[in-house]
Please model this.
Amino acid sequence: MKRIVCIIFVILSLNLVAHAADDLSLVSGGKDFSVPTKILVFLTILSLIPTFVIALTSFTRIVVVLSFLRQSMSLQQVPSGQVIVALALILTFYVMWPTGQGVYTSAVKPYMAGELSPQDAMDKGFKPISKFMLKQTSEKEVLLFYKLANLPRPKIKDDIPAHVLIPAFMLSELKTAFQMGFLIYLPFLIIDLIVSSLLMSMGMLMIPPIMISLPFKLLIFVLADGWTLVVSSLVQSFH
Model:
């Protein structure tokens, strides 16, 4: 019964494409669409899966914080971008596991059993995701997009529409990621300042401070078990 979040999106997309073809044939007056048209619909939905992962999950916060960590240590290519994205995807899978189970239990499984229509499956499948996003989104961002859309404030959180919740969620994720990035950046910045002051006091102006501070950054990071601290802080930052 357990499926990873990406597989859930793929399964739901595949089934929606199959039923979408039937729905489109009804719209066209009973005339079935050609195979290339069905393939185009399938590829269109499939191409949106990376966007769903970025916009509806914890991926954005994780990958931004990991990028801040690499820059704060003055490491340009280590770890590589592929490694950071892979680690971010694994942590996203870990964080989104309960939400993915909720989507599968409430929407994907009943839909595959023929108990739900495509529209009902989409509505029920989005509820666990919206519940996760609401926990991470601050009220300030939600009210901002309500104001921009000229909409009245909702009475309960469940009434927040997706076109308001999704941008508010992404803005909150970026805000939280930059706050965590600043806290990560601060100790390494202090090391750079200390090394720069020592080099200036000794008259060694031609030596780049990064060349001296980098080994100390790596040493402190390893001794403090930095990867464990960063990963645990990232996971625990999600409500």
In short: Residues 1-32 have pLDDT under 50 and may be disordered. The longest helix spans residues 162-201.
